[in-house]
Amino acid sequence: MDTGFDYSQAGFAIRNDIATAHRAIWHKIGEPGNWWRGAERRAIVREARNARSCSACKQRKASLSPEVACAPHNTSSNLSDAAADAVHRIATDPARLSKHWLESLEADGLSDGHYVELLGVLVAAISIDAFHRALGLPLEPLPKPVPGEPNGYRPPGARDSGAWVPRVQPEDAGEAEADLYPSNAVPNVISAMSLVPDAVRMQQQLGRVHYLPLQSVMTPNDNGGRAISRLQIELLAGRVSSLSQCFY
Amino acid sequence: MLRASSQTSGDDVDLTGIVTGGALSWGARGGTPRKNAVETGIVGDKVLLAFVETALDDDAQATAATRNAVIETLGEAAMIDAAAVIAHFQRMVRIADGTGIPLDTSFAVQTADIREELGINDYGRAPQNSG
Predict the structure, then answer these.
(1) Would you call B77 an interface residue with chain A, using a CB distance cutoff of 8 Å?
(2) What is the ipTM of this complex?
């Protein structure tokens, strides 16, 4: 039985589906993935939290170019330099990531599978932590690592389709990925992390409770039964994207 | 999606509000929205924008003030749902920026005018700036 994310003392009536999803995602992060052990996935979460106070990240963020030479990151884990750099940059300066930078990580030994899985774990943790910070709640203790080895699974349908990393397009999803997409017409952001299918599954599980069920997303006036209207939801979404300088 | 929602609902929404914002002076910085805040036409826009801005600014004291303002204006359940949406899009922007996905073709066509108008094409990872 997964525990944690007890919101009974939060001071707000937080929806049960949010707590349930957070608990499930946290447990999932602690498990071995396709490319990382549970303890390494936990280290990604630790490093994401640490990046917020990294002086090198602050220096780089303030510089005109993200390529500027900076002091080493203030790391708090035993992740490789390439993995730690990926965590720090995605966490603190995502709008200035580049294909050139990603290729440099691969040259330093971080494979595309490792990178996408790292991204999936990282963004799930950032999102859950962001929810806690917005509500003024303490952060959840790091996930408990589950012993085991990564299985090295790579979806057979993954191919280059115009992104920096291979993806499984809906028409290429085999039996093992049949559950990833509700239809053959999904936005690129849904398939973005499909090189690691569980990253998409985590994304959708969180998206259903933080934003909207996928079937509601494409219906402009469907607010999924939330206490705010769809216009208010999209106002929030647009402002976060704008402040984050996200073109997508 | 904001434009699609407003067109479907028939509401007259000023989309420049998502770029200009309107509330960085809220809470710890003075307690009221900026005087030149854009009226988007959406109910509760100022407190919602302020909530986003203080949350992303990582200012716990100011966020407490904007959180309370959302509760006072729209209610506690609305504040919680707003916090969840803010959390969600902090994830989604990193997925888009971290994987270098292209804009969906239909979406690019539908939003070409508004992307130009709002200056979104000037963002660093916009297709013409990406490398």
Answers:
(1) yes
(2) 0.95
Report CA A118 to chain centroid distance, whole Å.
8
Q: What are phi and psi of A16, to 5 degrees?
A: -65, -35
From chain B residues 20-49, the ones with a CB under 8 A of any chain A CB are: 21, 40, 42-45, 48-49
- The CA distances from residue A225 to A230, B17, B77, in Å, are 10, 25, 11
In angstroms, the Cα distances linking A53 to A93, A130, A194, B11, B122 are: 13, 15, 31, 42, 28
Segment among A56-70, A94-108, A170-184, B60-74 with least mean pLDDT: A56-70
Tell me the domain boundaries of chain A: 16-210
**A39 touches A145 (CB < 8 A):** yes
- Which of B47, B90, B109, B125 to probe by mutation at the A interface, max A CB count within 10 Å? B90
Residue pLDDT, tens place only, B67-102 = 999 999 999 999 999 999 999 999 999 999 999 998
Reference A20, options A211, A149, A231, A208; nearest CA is A208
CA distance B114 to chain A (A): 12
Could you tell me which residues come within 8 angstroms of residue A155 by beta carbon, excluding any fewer than 6 positions away? A168, A173, A174, A176, A177, A194, A195, A197
Length in residues, chain A: 248
Task: With beta carbons less than 8 A apart as the criterion, state whether A136 and B64 touch.
Answer: yes
- Measured CA to CA, the distance from residue A149 to residue B31 in angstroms comes to 52
B60: Cβ contacts below 8 Å, ≥ 6 apart: A133, A136
User: Could you tell me if A11 lies within 8 Å of chain B, comparing CB atoms?
Assistant: no
Joined together, the tokens standing for residue B99 give 């994987």
